[in-house]
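Hi R.,

Here's the chain you asked about this morning:
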Amino acid sequence: MTSSYEPESIIGQATVRAAPTRLSPVACPHESRFPTRYRYFMPCCARNITTCQPIQPIHIENVSAFPNHDQCSIPIMNRSTPISRSKSAALARVLDLVPRGYLRYFSGIVAPTKAAALARKFDKLYAIAATPAQRLTRKHKGFANCRLILYWPDGAQQIEWMIVATDGDGLESEARNLHYVTHTRMSWLHYELVRRPTSGITAWTWRRPREVMRELVLLLSSQTKRRDWNSAQETLLRAARQPGFHGVREQSRTLCQIARKSGYKGELPALYFMRKIAHGEPLAL
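And the predicted structure, written out as tokens:
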């Protein structure tokens, strides 16, 4: 298979000219990315990675236009951590991480102007933006893997953050602030994390704290005793609009049952399930 033509093209400021070269099936460090029939010895920057098709090797006359021409053309992902604009997104991220072994945590607040610097500091100390491969390496070396959860609503005067971590070394400086979700009940953003049995296994969910739930029951009971049905309906609607995690939804259902037993004849609000949502937009580190 020999090339007999020399097409030219302009890429940026560099002139790229195909060279007539015989392609031979020699081992390549990236050959596992391509089918066997397309494994040819050529520079990484000469591969058409999008279509996995072999193309002609190239000679670059103006190398300065390609500062990374000696590196593989596969783009390197920038380090980032998600920003949760809603409580539902922030709380859902905790529920995703806790069952995967992130059972230690500490939290705090920070001003919006300092949030990015704080995230970079945590990445330098605890590698919060590590890739899956880097997290496996840290685990094998005995280091803890950490994730940063930022609750940053639009127009907020302060940002609430939480670090969740697996077992391992590297968090000795935070020993006084570290808590285990299995020893101390996690309370964050006015909700508490609890375990519930389901299908023979233990799952995690969020619910309102007991004090908040007690106040809602007293408020609803007072409204139904006064036959203030409009206020009672507003209380039920406000409870139904809160994040639809299993624990919160069960508490809202209890409020609806209390209202019915107290003589409320109006329409009960719909209780929605919590769907899988994105964790948030990335914050570059």
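Residues 80-205 form one domain.

Let me know if you need anything else.
M.
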